[in-house]
Structures are given as structure tokens and as C-alpha cells.
UniProtKB/TrEMBL annotation:
Homoheptamer. Residues 120-185 form the Mechanosensitive ion channel MscS domain. It is a multi-pass membrane protein. It is found in: Cell inner membrane; Cell membrane. The keyword Mitochondrion does not apply. The chain crosses the membrane at residues 37-55, 75-96, 102-133. Belongs to the MscS (TC 1.A.23) family. Its main location: membrane. Pfam families: MS_channel_1st_1, MS_channel_2nd, MS_channel_3rd. It comes from Kangiella sediminilitoris. GO terms for molecular function: mechanosensitive monoatomic ion channel activity. Residues 193-274 form the Mechanosensitive ion channel MscS C-terminal domain. The keyword Cell inner membrane applies. This is Small-conductance mechanosensitive channel.
Length: 290
């Protein structure tokens, strides 16, 4: 031991023999654990790289075989988490930690974490149920939990939606798997409903013909089932028609907006009015007697 170190030990009330003993013990631990630590670090780095390579290979295989996108993202996420847990256990065992003790501690910690994260585990179970029963898949437009959007990704714990105005919505899997939802993309066709009103003084038959001519001229509208039009109600200020047509699901909004505009222009061109609420105010002059 150096003179300086000896002086410091003496000033702290520690004998030279104790310092020498501690130094020898530290050296022994260093000889035992430093090589294990170095090996553990090497395993960690190589393992992390191999996991990334493996996941990248799985992704390429899925794309080459045109694998289902929904299941692909879930499997990649689940496999990545599982492999990282295995890597962590391997690194810990390499450092000489007794696995029986570690497993017992892991079990106790798992129980505590499980109780604290019961909602997260429910989301995981919900994700598994969604993959089994497949109420929707990536690319479907759905409405669930008060939100609507296109399914971008189904993760282990959450479902990611993308709205038409490019917002990202993250919804936990548990409530989606248990509650009601609407899938607008599951069926190949959808029905478009219109409501058109004309004035009481206008010709009903002429209005029906004008509307049907516009609707049937749209090639996106299916001929079978054929378009339907009927008088729906005699409202306070208008005679209302219900129009129902069938289209491909992807054409729904295009057909709706285009024909709404086209019918309005056609009715105007044929002199058929579209009533709107009006308020007439009558002023009465009251002459005061002098």
C-alpha cells in the first residue's frame, strides 16, 4: 500500500491490514465477475443485433408471401418482446445469478406487476381475441369507442386508427374486444341513402324522373339491386323523397357527394324548387286616436 493511502486509512481509523484485505477481496471479485460481465455485454450486443436481423427477416418473408398485414404486425411485436425477455434472462444467467432465485423473484415481481397492470394484461388478451375472431383487419374503416378511422395497426395492447384528416387515435384492445363496434369495410357493397325535398306546388312525377335520371347515369351505382325512390313524407314545408342506391364500399362518399350536387343542379334546371324554412313578418300599423 502506498504511503498516501496508508495515511488516509489511518486518518479514517482503518488499519492497513483491513485495507489490504478489502483490496484483495475486490481483486478476487474482479477476477471472477469481470470476465462474466464482459461475456454478458457481448451476448447482449450480439443478441440485440440478432433479434433485429431475425425480425427483419420475418418481415421480408411475410411481405414475400403476401402475409396478412394484421397478423404480421401482431406477430412481429409479440416475437420482439418475447426474444428480448429471453435475451435478458440469458444475460443475467451468464453473470452467475442463480436462475432458481431469479425465477422466484421474477414470479413474485410478475404477480405484483400483474396486479398493477391488470388493465394492460386485459388489453393483451383483447388483442389475441381480435386476431382470433377478426372483427376487423388493417385497412378497414371502423367506428369504436366513440372514434372512427382506418385501422393502421393492431398491436399487442392497442389498435391504431388513422382518421381521414390524418390524426392518429390509439384505442386499448380490451374495450374494443368487449364492446360493440361498426365495420364499414367488411362488406363489399354499401347502401347510400338520400333525402330530397321539393315544394308542394311542384310536379311529383317530374321530380322523381329528374332524380332517377341523375342517379342511374352514375356508373358507380349498381343496377342490381336497382335504385329505389319513394315518397317518404309530407313535411311542414316540403314533399320529401327517399332515394336508396347500392355501390361498392370504396365509392360510398364519392357517390353521395357527387349525386347530391348533381340532383340539386338538375332540379334547379327543371324549375323544381327545393324549399327551405322561411319566416314572414307582418307589420300592422296601429293609429292612435287623438
Amino acid at each position: 500500500m502506498s504511503t498516501t493511502a496508508a495515511k488516509i486509512a489511518e486518518s479514517a481509523g482503518i488499519s492497513t491490514e483491513q485495507v489490504s484485505s478489502w483490496a484483495a477481496t475486490a481483486m478476487e471479485y474482479a477476477k471472477i465477475y469481470l470476465p462474466k460481465l464482459a461475456v454478458a455485454i457481448v451476448i447482449l450486443v450480439i443478441g440485440w443485433i440478432l433479434i433485429r436481423v431475425l425480425l427483419g427477416g420475418m418481415k421480408k418473408i411475410f411481405k414475400a408471401r403476401d402475409f396478412d398485414t394484421t397478423l404480421e404486425k401482431f406477430l412481429l411485436s409479440f416475437t420482439g418482446i418475447l426474444l428480448k425477455i429471453i435475451l435478458l434472462i440469458t444475460v443475467i444467467s451468464t453473470m452467475g445469478v442463480q436462475m432458481t432465485t431469479f425465477v422466484a423473484l421474477l414470479g413474485a415481481a410478475g404477480l405484483a406487476v400483474g396486479m398493477a397492470l391488470s388493465g394492460t394484461l386485459q388489453n393483451f388478451a383483447g388483442g389475441v381475441m381480435l386476431l382470433i375472431f377478426r372483427p376487423y383487419k388493417v385497412g378497414d374503416y371502423i367506428e369504436a369507442q366513440g372514434h372512427a378511422g382506418t385501422v393502421k395497426e393492431i398491436q399487442i395492447f392497442n389498435t391504431i386508427l388513422k382518421t381521414p384528416d390524418n390524426k392518429i387515435i390509439i384505442i386499448p384492445n380490451a374495450p374494443i374486444s368487449k364492446d360493440s363496434m361498426i365495420n364499414y369495410s367488411m362488406e363489399a357493397t354499401r347502401r347510400v341513402d338520400f333525402l330530397f325535398g321539393i315544394g308542394y306546388d311542384d310536379d311529383i312525377d317530374q321530380a322523381k324522373k329528374v332524380i332517377m335520371d341523375i342517379i342511374t347515369a352514375d356508373e358507380r351505382v349498381h343496377k342490381d339491386p336497382e335504385p329505389f325512390i319513394a315518397l317518404k313524407e309530407l313535411a311542414d314545408s316540403s314533399v320529401n323523397f327517399t332515394v336508396r342506391v347500392w355501390v361498392d364500399s370504396g365509392d360510398y362518399w364519392g357517390v353521395y357527394f357527387d349525386n347530391l350536387e348533381a340532383v340539386k343542379k338538375a332540379l334547379d334546371a327543371n324549375g323544381i324548387s327545393i324549399p327551405y324554412p322561411q319566416t314572414d313578418v307582418h307589420l300592422h300599423r296601429v293609429e292612435s286616436s287623438s
